[in-house]
Amino acid sequence: MNSTSNADVRRVAVIGAGTIGASWAACFLARGLDVVVSDPAPGAADGVRRMIAEAWPALTALGTSPNADPTAWRFEADPAAAVAGVDFVQESTPERYDVKQKLLPLIDAVLSPDVVIASSSSGLLVSRLSEGCRFPERCIIGHPFNPPHLIPLVEVVGGTKASRAAIDRAMAFYRAAGKHPIEIRKEVPGHVSNRLQAALWREAIYLVQEGVASVADVDAAVSEGPGLRWALMGPHMTFHLGGGAGGMNHFLRHLLPAVESWWTDLGSPTMTDDLQRRLVEGVDEEADGQSIAELERWRDGLLEQIIVLRRNAAAKLEAARERERVEARLDETFPASDALSVTRELPEQDITPNPKAGE
Prior knowledge:
The mean pLDDT is 92. Helix 1 links the parallel strand 1 (11-15) and strand 2. The protein has an eight-stranded mixed sheet. It has three domains: 6-184, Rossmann fold, CATH 3.40.50; 193-286, Orthogonal Bundle (N-(1-d-carboxylethyl)-l-norvaline Dehydrogenase, domain 2); 290-334. The termini are far apart. The chain has 14 helices and eight strands. With 359 residues, it is α/β, with parallel strands linked by helices.
């Protein structure tokens, strides 16, 4: 694959127009890109149109590109026709090997070799997804977090077949699209973020199974506690601060034994019909009559505010650091030979008077 500039990406194909694909389309439109959407489902185009309309106020509040246009997209049912002339492909079809392994070779066959095919797969292995492609080295995972038009994270996985150029191009593209891509260096089922989610949820379900706490209280134990910190920093940095002035080194030396004892006591639930029923009833009770759409609007509204707060805080920190860098460069360029002389109007005023003068 040739190493082409990310500035060459002007048109993106979104293959699969469900919740994830439609949200991706809104995200790309907000960055001023032309988008072609493809999905065989009846009414798919109408669903995309609704998603873009619903997402656009939040995208506008977060800041769109000057040339952003919510109407700069078209629908093409045939995926092979949809990818014609595009510079990047974001595939978001159902999470099944048989579906994706049939689709990817189809679009790979008609694309220029330097166009990246990124799958939104939340846990499949890209080295298997690219089987049958002419150019498997251009296929990568570009896994977003739902909803993609708001959540910055994108997990980029090259697996055993993707080229360094394809990975770099995908990372650059997602950064330009306002995302925070991370490179997963070794492909594993579920990538990184979903494995972390799965580990936490397994213990959350186990605690309900064992009668330790209700579904609502287990959720509150996260959302009203560590979840607030996790919106700002990950588990490693959280425990670095948990170590006090000594940081992670102190935490590992003094608190690790307690954590290790908890690890040995973690459980694995048995997902019986009864336990699944308790989970369903528990979240229904916790939702307190609110519909999925209402809960999504509440969640997304708060996510927007959190993202703005984080962005503003990061901008202030960077401005402060830049001032420090400028001051340091000035000190290097114009060193003061006499620290006192620059604080007085006349050099002689820097001379310390004889304390006995005038006696």
